[in-house]
Amino acid sequence: MATKKKGGKKGAQNPTIATNRKARHDYNILDTYECGIVLVGTEIKSLREGKASLVDSYATIDDGEVWLRNLHIPEYSYGSWTNHSPKRTRKLLLHRREIDSLQGKVRDGNKTLVPLKLYLKDGRLKVELGLAAGKQDYDKRQDLKRRAEERDITRELGRRIKGIKG
């Protein structure tokens, strides 16, 4: 007798709805956390259409709860008077020990909580939250220089390999 597996299709990917590419440029990501998020009905419908923006969003810890601020989820196109406010504050779901740990790290140093990615996992929306320390301008320039050098090296190696084979 065959048993039916839970969790959808075999090898199903977690579809990414939105990423915050600017965060990895502006911050050094020290640690990441996967959190749930509390939404209303029209928000998840709008997100399933693939509409969201993580630009300028951040998380705060208030009274032992983590809140995501400035996440822009546009109004649902087929919604009516029940539509949500696009930039409302949304609660993130983490374990108590994770919240306490994050609160200590944010309070101690010059660190912030930045959302890195929104994605669906088993039909539920998840937020990848990063504990981040800000980069200085010279750090950003060093990263750009290092990437350009690596790109040049791989390009040159590719040419040499083609020259040997050809």
Supply the number of helical segments.
4
- Separation, N- and C-terminal Cα atoms: 57 Å
Principal-axis shape: globular
Could you say what the CATH architecture of the largest domain is? Beta Barrel
Describe this entry's structure for a reader.
The chain is of the alpha+beta class and 166 residues long. The chain folds into 2 domains: 16-135, Small Protein B, Chain: A (Beta Barrel), CATH 2.40.280; 136-166. It has 4 helices and 7 strands, in the order βαβαβββαββα. A 7-stranded antiparallel beta sheet has the order 1-6-7-2-5-4-3. Strand 3 and strand 4 form a beta hairpin. The longest helix is centred in the C-terminal third of the chain and has 29 residues, at 137-165. It is globular, with a radius of gyration of 20 Å. The chain starts with 15 loop residues before the first strand and ends with a helix.
Short descriptors:
single chain; 166 residues; alpha+beta; Small Protein B, Chain: A; 2 domains; seven-stranded antiparallel β-sheet; 7 strands; DNA binding; SsrA-binding protein; DNA-binding
In short:
With 166 residues, the chain is α+β, with helices and mostly antiparallel strands. The chain has helices at 21-26, 41-48, 96-108, 137-165; strands spanning 16-19, 27-37, 58-62, 65-69, 90-93, 111-121, 124-134.
Give me the secondary-structure topology.
Layout lengths: L15 E4 L1 H6 E11 L3 H8 L9 E5 L2 E5 L20 E4 L2 H13 L2 E11 L2 E11 L2 H29 L1
Antiparallel strand pairs: 1-6, 2-5, 2-7, 3-4, 4-5, 6-7
